[in-house]
Amino acid sequence: MRIIVLGAGVIGVTSAWYLARRGHEVTVIDRQPGPALETSFANAGEISPGYSAPWAAPGIPLKAMKWMFQRHAPLVLHPTMNPDRIRWMLEMLANCTGPAYARNKSRMVRLAEYSRDCLTELRAETGVRFDERQQGTLQVFRTDKQVAAAEKDIAVLKADGVPFEVLDRAGCIAAEPGLAGAAHRIAGGLRLPGDETGDCFKFTNALAEKAAQAGVTFRYGVTINAIRAEGGRVSGVETSEGLMTADSYVLALGSLSPFLAKSLGIRLPVEPLKGYSITVPITDYDRAPVSTVMDETFKVAITRLGERIRVGGLAEIAGFDTSLNDRRRATLEKSLTEMFGGAGDLKAATFWTGLRPMTPDGTPIVGATPLANLWTNTGHGTLGWTMAAGSGRLLADLIDGRAPEIDPEGLAVSRYGRSRAPRAAAGAMRPATA
To answer: Distance (Å, rounded) from C-alpha 178 to C-alpha 271?
Structure first.
């Protein structure tokens, strides 16, 4: 088939790769001048299947109220009158129960574990390099309360057969020697030895080159204006370079995906979750992290990427605002300084923000839509890098009509109920700013 993939982030590029490997004629369209220049550009760098968990969790509503009054809050909710966002937040609250958390985390871990295996195969097949390391993730708890709260995650890890280690303070320092100076801050840890790290931007660019060599056409600098549909099928995509047509279409535009889907009668409950990162050159390798350390208090990941440390995380529900907030930078710097003080040159750090496409239950939307030839691969939230390879391969199986290698239950947009009838023949991209 001729297939158009909308979006050249890590999700769009991996989708294009797997579709091209199946023999399809693939074109990728993106408004940016190259791949991975938005959400995939400077994310936390962790590939953490075992740590895959929804933000919607028991206790989050109460924590969110407390965080409103904290300077270094991991989650910030900005007031809004946007009805779609209010509905999204209410649905997120409805998922903050024990049963919902276990169900959603299990779905996420299933896809993330599969994705890790797919990435291993892809790396061996293509030889792409991206400052990758396979040395696990360590979630560090600063309080006994955090240690106790991890039991719900451990229960899901056990149920899904994910290897893990529960560590005391000494065990954490043995796994990450750079934490020795922060020993007094550590109450315990949860280590996931199967997790990895890597630079998502480097990976996406390297894979895009391989995909181009395999026949994929990349159309950069092209604005996507609308999707045309008639007779229950997509008939084309209106762009700044005219109407583009194919046999099938993949919507992989992250937080912008709902705007193209809405007028087609498809509700994609995806909200931009604003995150931040700093990238710090290493000055003392003995004090630097070996892999990824998750600072549970601030919900921040501190990751070793070659000669750099990437500190990423936090979340703001603030629409499509991409302004840099110095208060968020201060939180990232605080976490790095308290965990790995003296490891890097903060004065030379670069500061970045991006919008992670989050669903109310945390689970991505991968699969078919009510339109026969339109498919989605979006809504991965903070785990797009972790789930990219598996999502792309799963989608290729579904489009080809093959039996997927994992159960796709709970991943399609149909889990949100029936879509309404379209208001018009085109789904236009009109992102809100607040």
So the answer is: 36
